[in-house]
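Z., the sequence and structure:
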Amino acid sequence: MDVLSDAITTMRVGRPSMSLTRADPSWTERVQSFDGARLYVVITGGIRVEEADGSGVDLELGDAVLFPFGIEHRLINATDDTAQLLSAAYRLDQARPHPLFANLPELVSLPARADRYPSLRASIELLRSELGEQMYGRDLVLPALLDVLLVHVVRACLAESAGLQTVGWCVALEDEVIARSLRAVHERPAEPWTVQSLGAYAGLSRAAFARRFTAMVGQPPLTYLTWWRLTTAARLLQTTDAPLSVIAQRSGYGSVYAFANAFKREYGISAGRYRQQHRADRQGLAEAL
């Protein structure tokens, strides 16, 4: 998968949940903090979204707002009319968040401008249409559309951030050279990459590549490679019954011994114990959503 897909897949737990709220003129709701992301789209009317300190944004028809880290906030009907608000919740495993998400602010507002992010606007319209019709297959279509919407929103968030920053993941994914090396690491983590081979693959000398990668990503190439390999291994331990030898090989380690040592150094427990603990925890989180 590509870097964004991997980042979301690694953190996602269970299926997204969704609700459609009818907000009367005096309606207000306080939303507690949440281990995941919350997304809102105004279907009709207007809604004000406020953070705990009282700062916030006013949303109109088609506007969207994302709380990537699920911080506490308040929702208020901002008009004298009834409003409708689509709410989506995506539970995320925050124990090992992908650094890509560190570039996102706590609140991201995406106005419904016709000239920006047509794919995002199209996914919102599809959701609105599906919500307005009682069609067969709705229970299958809606979670899939929520997943699509999350991807388009995060894409838009990264694009907005890239226009304001000179380094960081949002910029790295737009940089052809660094993006190419990141795709290689994510698509082929088991390959015996070196700084030199990654640099050659990206089209730069070893030194130039190392400087550029570290400046944009915030970690040296091999540090990120190791982080991603062990993150991949952890996901396999949680979601498959593959033996440790297979997981070691798929994660880029030549032996179970080397993998076991690296995993315990990173996570503080053995791979077998991690599998027992975290698969049970992940199942519990999925059932709770």
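The longest strand covers residues 36-44. The mean pLDDT is 87.

Let me know what you think.
H.
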